[in-house]
Amino acid sequence: IGYYLDEEKGWSLEISELKRAIKEAKEVSEPRVIVVINPGNPTGQVLNRDNIVEIIKFAHEEDLFIFADEVYQDNVYAKTSKFHSFKRVLTEMGPPYNKIQLASFMSCSKGYMGECGLRGGYSEVINLDPKVKTMLLKSISASLCPTSLGQAVMDTVVNPPQPGEPSYERYKAEKEGVLKSLAERAKMVADSFNSFEGFSCNTVQGAMYAFPQVIY
């Protein structure tokens, strides 16, 4: 069951919309998971902390497992925007919210590294039911592993060069250069759409997407 973001509020996720969606879902199923993509794909928004707090409270109220797709967490362009991970926010909220089941997803195929042909990623899962964890480990053990190259690239993403190491300055310059270029393109795309008659487009706060509206 889908839910819709509020374009007029910068593609925010309104709790009233989540309540509508889950009410509709309960007519045909028993909802167990809520999926949130932040920064947004394909809308390019970055959720603020207050909005994330509201979503976490909603998930707790409805006993939902949170799947947080955060693969564009480094791609934040708007000066007024900041990435907040669901794990950090629910941990800072304390009981009972810090006991919610949460899976956070990251990838080397997206973000500033953008190696789309090298498929690799990981999920960090917290507060998982022990019985579910046992079954998940059985499932993983029976499946094939990702390609060795993808695993190697993923290792470099989660273990980047640190200050003082030989390659750090080059890594830092390349990363900042890529993100600066993406920020410039994001602004150019949004400004271009807004200059066309019959189009409007919100500021691209993050990720790699603009989602214009065609006015007719």
Automatic annotation (TrEMBL):
Protein's GO biological process: L-alanine catabolic process
The UniProt record lists the keyword Transferase: yes
Pathway this chain belongs to: Amino-acid degradation; L-alanine degradation via transaminase pathway; pyruvate from L-alanine: step 1/1
Pfam families, A to Z: Aminotran_1_2
CDD domains per the UniProt record, alphabetical: AAT_like
GO molecular function: L-alanine:2-oxoglutarate aminotransferase activity; pyridoxal phosphate binding
Keywords carried by this UniProt record: Aminotransferase, Pyridoxal phosphate, Transferase
Cofactor: pyridoxal 5'-phosphate
Known EC number: 2.6.1.2
EC main group: transferase
Similarity section: Belongs to the class-I pyridoxal-phosphate-dependent aminotransferase family. Alanine aminotransferase subfamily.
UniProt subunit comment: Homodimer.
Protein name in the entry: alanine transaminase
Gene source species: Timema poppense (Walking stick)
Highest classification ranks of the organism: Eukaryota, Metazoa, Ecdysozoa, Arthropoda, Hexapoda
